[in-house]
Amino acid sequence: MALDALLFNDDRHAGNLVLQATDRSAFERRAWGIDMGNALAGMPADFAKAEFATPGIAKLVDKLPAVLLQEGALLAAVQAQELSSYVVTSMVSEACELAREPRKNEELLLSALLRRLARAPDLVEEYLLKIGSRP
Length: 135
Fold this sequence. Notes:
Elements: H1 2-7, E1 17-21, E2 29-33, H2 44-50, H3 66-81, H4 85-99, H5 103-118, H6 120-132
Antiparallel strand pairs: 1-2
Helix pairs in contact: 2-5, 3-6, 4-5
């Protein structure tokens, strides 16, 4: 959920959320969000315009228990916030090279992502509140 909040992915539906059993308990599951193809980060100009907005939840899996996702998502947000600008720049550069993005888009994406990562815990918490507010 942290990655969805940070990369602005509002396309988290039942078809791209996988639950994996763990060895710790027959009842414990690890949630994996797969397929970030519709994340706004893939459209650098729109991603930059989004500034500090969080994704909508209209497509979100029904009855997703935000309270159970909170600890892991907030931990991931703190770790994302602690990434060095060098590491983020390297990842963005490689991704843009593979996608053959123009240099202008790479700069837009990097700038927007660094701003969002600086506020990662706040963005993730806001997104989790949206998820938890559903009936």
